[in-house]
Amino acid sequence: MIYNLYCRLALTIYILVAYAFYPDFHLAVDAVPHSLYQYLTQSFLAGHLDLLVQPSQELLNLPDPYDPVQNYKLRLHDASLYNDKYYLYFGPLPIIVFHIPFKLLTGFYPSDGLAAFFFLSLGFMVNFFLIIKIKEQYFPRISELQLGLMGALLGFANGAPFLMSRPVVYEIAIASTFCFMSFALFFLYKITQKYKTKDIILFSLCLSLCVAGRPHFVLICFCLLPALFIYLIKHTSKNRFTLITALFAPAAGVGFMLALYNYVRFGSIWNFGHIWQLSCNNIKALHKELSNLGKIPRNLLYSSYFYFLQPFLIVKIFPYIRLIWHNCRYHIDNDYYLEAIVGVFITTPFILLVLALPKLILIYFRNRKKTAPLLWFLLFTSFVPFITTLFLLILPFAIQRYQVDFIPYWVLLAIITFWLYEDYARHSIHFKIIKIIFIVTAVMSIYMGFSLGLGYWTTL
């Protein structure tokens, strides 16, 4: 038992150290702000919702200050310009839970690398602890060596190394959402085991806070919260008022605060400020494309290829692979935006095992009633990657870092699918072949996940 604990601790420390130094040292602080989230921290502490950085008069005097050609040397890149003030459209979640407390405690601003490290490390540890609990409760025969492999998958095949290769404002927003979704899934697992009101409240809070990092995660809230409510009504003796309060009050509170935050800044509860963003692309034109529903079939076709099947380049320099690089203004059909990206079926092919999950769930519901709480957890968890994947596929762009909105949860589901399969067909020849394929592709995925960030970093 002590040996197992030491092995798990050693793996955790190794992954955290890898994050901290990947591909450069990230645990730095700054005395003065110089990045967007640091600027927003400064503003919040000064009682402002707009950034204290002032747009230049030259920018404001441009015929179209949102035109990337005109504002190229004048803009604060990726800030939102509204009523002659700079705002940040990226969600305030990292500021509230990390930047402001860190600044108040230390007097320094955390660097972007430190913020990304904090959220990704915490998210990984929560996920690793979750699969340890699942393994010990439902799959005690799984070896410690295999558990270590699964932990490495959670640490390196989840897209985290890529985010750490260039941690700036975009990566921090994604990392913070990953962190809180990891907490949400942990409390969701506890709900399916014991139905405690405390866990329901914490699940709702963590899930809804994801919207403060990545607004489209509100789609998950709209689907998952009602589904869980129906489940709890049928499986617990708690009265409906208690369930409604515990499940929906935290989400409603977070939603109200975000709506108020948007309304005070932009006069609309729905506007996070993205339409006013100053970028290397014309964001207003992009929003017109988003409103063109006729482009959705085209977007689905392109995005399915780029997010799932796009290959990588093989090069002569370590780590011998890198993404196919596109600059900021690269477009297809003049209106489909593309950055460097490689498909997840190429980098993490073992997640294809998730295709067996529906059949396994049916088999286990029919024959192994004791696993029902775990099966319900898997069903609810599948909402997360399914909804985020579908949402990203209909958009007119494909970006590598956005894969972290769904790939960690496909990885988690694939791991548990493998364990279900092993428990069900351990001695069959068919499973032994599947096991070899899974282990080989898992090791390959760890290498790919660790290497892609290095390949991306060397092109910057």
Q: Which of globular, elongated, flat, extended, rod-shaped describes the shape? A: globular
Strand order of the largest sheet: 7-8-9
Calculate Rg over CA atoms.
Answer: 23 Å
Number of structural domains: 1
Let me know the largest β-sheet.
Answer: 3 strands, mixed
Compute the separation of the termini in Å.
45 Å
Strand content: under 5%
Number of helices: 19
Low-confidence stretches: none
Mean pLDDT reading? 94
* SSE pattern: HEHHEEHEHHHHHHHHHEEEEHHHHEHH
Structural class, from helix and strand content?
mainly alpha
Compute the number of strand runs: 9
Task: Tell me the helix content.
Answer: 55-70%
Summarize the helices and strands and which ones pair or pack.
Elements lengths: L1 H19 L8 E2 L5 H10 L11 H4 L19 E3 L2 E3 L5 H14 L2 E2 L1 H27 L5 H13 L3 H6 L3 H26 L2 H13 L8 H18 L4 H27 L16 H8 L5 H13 L4 E2 L6 E2 L8 E2 L3 E3 L5 H4 L9 H11 L4 H10 L1 H11 L3 E2 L8 H19 L3 H29 L3
Parallel strand pairs: 8-9
Antiparallel strand pairs: 1-4, 2-3, 5-6, 7-8
Helix pairs in contact: 1-5, 1-6, 2-4, 5-6, 5-8, 6-19, 8-9, 8-16, 9-11, 10-11, 10-17, 18-19
